[in-house]
């Protein structure tokens, strides 16, 4: 890498950070739109929640597809720019949607596809520009970008809705999506082709024969269950706060607290994973269990202060779970199967995001209470933890084997993505 390229690496880092802030800030902050859309269209909670769920699910499902498009198109810059344009069109069309059904297409599918098209092509640029500090760089770009998006987007959306109505806010949101063009312009290509070792990772990118392994099946079910419950809780959080202790204009700040706690949890996961006496399987599963218990007891919260504390616990435990996954996949699947594992993870998370919030919304519609939706969401997460205990106790100890640090797993994953 030339000196000029080395200097430009930090510009790349900023561009990827900004793209992740926009993409996941949008995807995870739909709860700020949820209440106003209920009031506007008078549709069911489940159908309204499906709009945001479909957007996030489409984003995640598009991920592996967009990674493969990198070599077909030959430019991450083009894919990020096209993704930003598609998301812009989706937001504009959503602002003029006359009903919730059209929003399922304009926001759920079109906007989600745009963000999904831009996501992985931007992230892979970190793998081209960083080597020795790749783990730290990817942490800043992806983890901090996602968390920062949660921190700022909820309050911004809520303020825009209050000032300009939700349609005006959606138009401004479209302009924000266009900033992906800025990110794309900064993604300067570099001649850093894949090595023979890296290319071998992509010879069989989606090997469904792995599903014959019961541990793989259980891990997919585990992820499907906890992501369904967690994303349902995220979408319900603002509405629950508005109907209990917190004024409508301040409820989205809970998403900011959630984002900050998520960043802390991700950093904590990295620290624990590199501790010689720490078992990442236990970190992952105990964090999942805490996540489920936290969601279940949300309806019993009796004050706004306790609600804030519970939101902090929710965010930290979610960050711990997400921060442990790359090591878990490498341990369960093996490094040689990490390409398939990563793609299966994105598809599973996409399906979970699609299922959770609409189901929780339907439960609220039926019971007119948040107790059952939060209970079912938490129960799904706790059930996923129980499933993972089966995996843990049927997995042979690897004390005598080489234990790869989390940096190696993460670096291998980014090298894989640059070669898909």
What is the number of helical segments per DSSP (H or I, 4+ residues)? 15
Give unreliable regions as ranges: 193-203, 398-404, 415-420
In angstroms, what separates the terminal alpha carbons? 22 Å
Tell me the radius of gyration.
20 Å
Strand content: under 5%
Number of extended strands: 0
Instruction: Please tell me what the overall shape is.
Output: globular
Structural class: mainly alpha
SSE order, one letter for each helix or strand: HHHHHHHHHHHHHHH
Mean pLDDT: 82
Question: Helix share of residues?
Answer: over 70%
Largest sheet geometry: none
Secondary structure layout:
Layout lengths: L2 H26 L2 H11 L3 H29 L2 H20 L4 H30 L4 H44 L1 H8 L9 H5 L13 H29 L10 H21 L6 H18 L6 H30 L4 H30 L3 H23 L12 H14 L1
Helix pairs in contact: 1-5, 1-6, 1-7, 2-3, 2-6, 2-9, 3-5, 3-13, 4-5, 4-6, 4-7, 5-6, 5-15, 6-10, 6-15, 9-11, 9-12, 9-13, 9-14, 10-12, 11-12, 11-14, 13-14
Question: How would you describe what is shown here?
Answer:
This protein is an all-alpha fold and 420 residues long. 80% of the residues lie in helices and 0% in strands. The longest helix is centred in the middle third of the chain and has 44 residues, at 134-177. The chain starts with a helix and ends with a helix.
